[in-house]
Write a structure and sequence with these properties.
- The chain has 393 residues and is mostly helical.
- It is built from 20 helices and no strands.
- Helix 18 packs antiparallel against helix 19.
- The protein is globular and about 70 Å long.
Length: 393
């Protein structure tokens, strides 16, 4: 079974895990914490999807309407992330301040003591780490003085420790649930499969067949899917940390290791792949992060031609896993066109970039990016005047 297919099965199973079972009524399910968590993740996934379709207004409306009737930390974090993305795209001081205020609210919500379940508390720890990282980044955009850098370094250190401790607590929770008969051996094997080293942990081991995985996911139990979702959530933050730190020069990595950080590209990619195949709302975000890494970052860091070709092939497979509405969005088409460019299909890339510029979805910052790409391609084709026109835009 392919990874994209596995991800689809997991997502579909997660979206139906709250359906009627036996004699349990709809009213009873809607008031249960497990049902609320499932619904919040589905809502967050829709909002993240809107981001990649450049539908920020729809994402904000969806999350605002749901937050008015819920104090969910998950919805609060997703709303903050939408604002964070808008602030990075526009780079306007008002939007940076608004995003920072939302992340501060999310921090307070995650830090508040409640009578939540063990799984909810694990999720809140991860979301708190996300909030610390994004808040730090926004604060550095506002003021990158020496004091801010020291404060930001401490916040990043706290986030790193939160990811690590949540990983360990989550593995303990899985082992405990297995001992109490709440998880089967196959479910535990699925939860541990492809976890990034060194967080694979001990406990019940064993493989499983594709048919066994399909059976577990199609008859998923709420606890299993909830733990699978949280593991995907923590893998996203942990994976991004590793991936971005691995891009730093070697002498800086030595200092970061001394401070307790690590940056391993392979660990980061493996963690993001785990998240991509999980039922978490950030599974699409993990896929797009990997596509961005292969099409933008790795092209600069590739040591040899084989490594670059491997990245291009991986990005192609990841793009094929997206559905048609997403493939039609300007941002996804940008990545698609970069693949054409690396494969030498300059005319096809220019045609696709131009089509994206003429699409009904207009985002100024994305259009600037598309003009830049067309300008570079025209330059490579030695069409100087056309190249200059696009680059000036």
């Amino acid at each position: 079974m392919s990874k994209s297919a596995s991800s689809d099965v997991a997502s579909a199973s997660f979206s139906t895990a709250s359906s009627s079972k036996g004699a349990v009524s709809r009213a009873r399910r809607s008031s249960s914490p497990a049902y609320s968590s499932l619904t919040d993740v589905q809502t967050s996934a829709r909002a993240i999807r809107y981001i990649f379709q450049a539908r920020f207004q729809d994402a904000n409306h969806l999350l605002t309407s749901n937050r008015n009737s819920s104090s969910s930390a998950s919805l609060s974090a997703t709303h903050s992330f939408v604002a964070f993305t808008q602030a990075l795209v526009s780079y306007e001081s008002d939007q940076i301040s608004d995003a920072l205020a939302l992340w501060k609210q999310t921090e307070k919500l995650c830090s508040a003591s409640k009578n939540d379940s063990a799984e909810d508390k694990l999720e809140q720890k991860v979301l708190l780490a996300d909030a610390k990282i994004c808040s730090t980044f926004l604060q550095l955009l506002q003021s990158a003085d020496f004091g801010g850098l020291l404060k930001g370094s401490w916040a990043l250190r706290q986030a790193w420790k939160l990811y690590q401790s949540t990983y360990e607590d989550l593995l303990k929770q899985i082992e405990q649930s297995f001992r109490h008969g709440e998880l089967s051996k196959t479910e535990v094997a699925i939860l541990r499969h492809n976890l990034p080293h060194p967080f694979q942990g001990d406990g019940p081991a064993g493989g499983y067949t594709a048919s066994e995985r399909d059976l577990v996911l199609s008859h998923s139990r709420p606890l299993f899917m909830r733990l699978f979702q949280i593991m995907g959530l923590v893998c996203y933050g942990f994976g991004c940390f590793h991936l971005l730190l691995s891009l730093l020069p070697g002498h800086l990595l030595k200092w970061l290791k001394f401070l307790g950080f690590e940056g391993d590209m392979h660990v980061g990619m493996r963690a993001l792949t785990y998240c991509m195949n999980s039922p978490d709302s950030k599974s699409l975000l993990a896929r797009m992060t990997l596509i961005w890494f292969h099409t933008v970052i790795q092209t600069y860091y590739a040591i040899d031609e084989d490594q670059m070709q491997e990245g291009i092939d991986s990005a192609g497979v990841l793009l094929e896993g997206l559905d048609n509405p997403l493939r039609a969005s300007p941002l996804v088409q940008f990545f698609d066109c970069r693949l054409m460019r690396y494969k030498g299909n300059f005319d096809g890339a220019i045609q696709s970039y131009t089509s994206s510029l003429e699409s009904s979805t207009y985002v100024k910052e994305i259009n600037v990016l598309l003009h830049h790409e067309i300008g570079i391609l025209r330059f490579q084709l030695q069409e100087w005047n056309s190249s200059i026109d696009h680059l000036l835009k």
